[in-house]
From TrEMBL:
It comes from Aeromicrobium ginsengisoli. This is cytochrome-c oxidase. The keyword Secreted does not apply. It comes from the Bacteria. Keywords: Cell membrane, Membrane, Translocase, Transmembrane, Transmembrane helix. Residues 1-192 form the Heme-copper oxidase subunit III family profile domain. It holds the Pfam family COX3.
Amino acid sequence: MVTVGTIVWLSSELMFFAGLFAAYFTIRNISPNLWSQETAKLDVPFAAVNTTILVLSSVACQFGVFAAERGKPGRSGKLSQIKLWGMREWFVLTYLMGAIFIAGQATEYANLVTEHVTISSSPYGSMFYLATGFHGLHVVGGLIAFLLVIGRTFAARKFTHEQAISAIVVSYYWHFVDVVWVGLFATIYLIK
């Protein structure tokens, strides 16, 4: 039931982001000169590296799910033995990569503010910050979920099927957040 509920909830989130994409393209169509002027201020290589980090975090997350499905909450060897990692280690790596992504977004926001691109400076600024900001909030929500799942494994005496399901559900959310970002990255940074 939790898995089905998560998928239904993510479908509603998909509609929310579809609305942001529609608004972005509508305003872009109305003000093409503004868009070409403002998109020139974006640091595409930096954003591409940040995007790569987020996408690779999905890979780490999935390895954590595989470990959870095997009933392995923690590593069975040294930290340097990646093949022996459990769900916790993979989820901590995912968490760190997600935190780096958020730090990268904050850095980009600071750079754009110095370029006078703010949420109130123009329709472009409004749409850029709304779309990327709401996505960033979703990433932060995912980071909190990872901490909760990891914490539960330390608090419980035994790793249960329910904890494995929790890890899987959090991975659904994380993969969704990553796919949405790939769409946002393509729309905002690549389509000029």
